[in-house]
Amino acid sequence: MSGLTRGSVAVVGAAESDLGQVAPGTTPVDLMAQATRRALDDCGLKLSDIDGVFTNASQLRMPTLSLCEYLGIAPRYQDGTGIGGSSFMTHVQHAMLAIEHGLCEVALVAYGSTQRTVSRAAASPREFNPYESPYKPFLPASAYALAASRHMHQFGTTREHLAEVAVAARQWALMNPVAWEKEPLSIEQVLGARMVSYPLTVRDCCLVTDGGGAIILTSAARARTLRQKPAFVLGVGEHLSHMSISSMPDLTVTGAARSGAIAYAMAGLSAKDVNTAQVYDAFTINTILFLEDLGFCPKGEGGRFIAGGGIAPGGVLPVNTSGGGLSYCHPGMYGLLVLIEAIRQVRGDAGARQVQGCDVALAHGNGGVLSSQVTVLFGSEATV
Amino acid sequence: MSTASPNATYAAHCAKGELAYQVDTSTGAAVFYPRVIAPGTGAPLEWRVSAGLGTVYATTVVHTRGEPPHNVVLIDMDEGFRLMSRVEEIDPMAVQIGMRVRVRMHPATEAQPAYPVFTVEAGA
After folding, report:
1. Are the C-beta atoms of residues A22 and A117 closer than 8 Å to each other?
2. Which of A16, A82, A290, A382 has the fewest CB atoms within 10 Å of its CB?
3. How is domain A9-121+209-234 classified at the architecture level of CATH?
4. Hey, are the CB atoms on A134 and B106 less than 8 Å from each other?
5. pLDDT, mean of residues A157-162
């Protein structure tokens, strides 16, 4: 089905760059390089070992060229695929393919953004769409708000359910020393916050921060010779459904239903085998949609699944344990940081928020306006 | 292109007060936004003019600092295509999924060609 071999490749190094509000004058490539240095130090490989480079960034027209020039490397293989925030999950898939076929041996996936410093409008200008722009949707938020309206109409999901997603993310963030948000959050505060695009308040929307990260992948055999516990890639699946929200077939069912099914089939696993799910929470409705589409609860039951602390610390499923895009960090395209948290959980490296006995972690990426969905399943040595 | 572009043909219909869409000549399926070939099949497309009636599929109210809130909706037209628009002459928060609505053209300005908006269909 996927043509890839379960567990053939592993992540051996992972690191964030500086996050939040970075030093004045910092560039997106500075952040990629800083994270690359830290990821190399994490695994003990050298810069000259990297022979595959994968990156994308809205602030760079030709991101692999920018990064390779900066790092002073000429990799055998490179890929700048850009499908929004899930690009980096697809990079994992493409890196796996390249490593399996000998196109490269050590793959770097990197990201950086200074969108807080330069403004969101400057970091990722919107494309003009003659069939949408005249109506002045506040994108991307309004697209997710439209999806939320439909979910509320069809399934009885409430604004309180949405708010619970933000509250759970905040509770996890308070256990993450590098999270942007440092104060507790209540349902009432979410509901009473400034309205952005009904039913989403500013607390239903992701942060606007700087930040970046890097991960390094290599073959399973080489991974076992390095210093960190490998996070084996057990499954990967991708699905693209549309570009603009007016072309999304059903606003209550995302491409995660397909991407998840492909990834589970490759891994020989199902949702019940997953110990923690890191899902791209650009908006609170995302978490509900993805938990449904990835099989953690039936379609339409997401609101009730998360209610009463279901995904908060101590809940039935640990979700977005970093604090997520809502409370930890959201540097424009957050997918690489979603991967890093899943990798840390599988390595047992997640500090106070570590999920006990975590052998399988799901990382799910979202791009555009629910447009691209990519699911990666990581496993510990016990799973391969 | 030697013939009018899809968007220019669409805009010309809007200027006449018509909401135009296309149909896939191989399947009869309605297609929107206007294209050069049909999505999924690659077949030729033919233009049609909508009867103008549709149903609100999804709705949001956008809050922009310093401006009154405005609604943005997705409308499912009776002919089987969907488009983004807004419902006018109603409190934006009163727009409901399932409402029956009728198209009209927002007049053109120098900066913006005419574009379709909707009002609640009387007696619906």
Report:
1. yes
2. A382
3. 3-Layer(aba) Sandwich (3.40)
4. yes
5. 98
